[in-house]
Amino acid sequence: xxxxxxxxxxxxxxxxxxxxxxxxxxxxxxxxxxxxxxxxxxxxxxxxxxxxxxxxxxxxxxxxxxxxxxxxxxxxx
Length: 77
What we know:
This protein has 77 residues and is α/β, with parallel strands linked by helices. The chain has helices spanning 14-25, 32-36, 49-60, and strands spanning 3-7, 29-31, 38-40, 43-45, 65-69. Strands 1-5-2 form a three-stranded parallel β-sheet.
């Protein structure tokens, strides 16, 4: 197994499960939130839809990973 996606709602244990799977399977773990949000003047800012689609494509193009996050569109506040 080279790619595993762990998707669910906030607080459901995605990060814990992803870390455990990454350790057990020897795969790098990618936390979507760490790539989605950026800090601007002390505020969390979302990328534009176009920026996010491009970044997401880059992340999933890797050969091996455990990736965790919510389904696209659930980040909006």
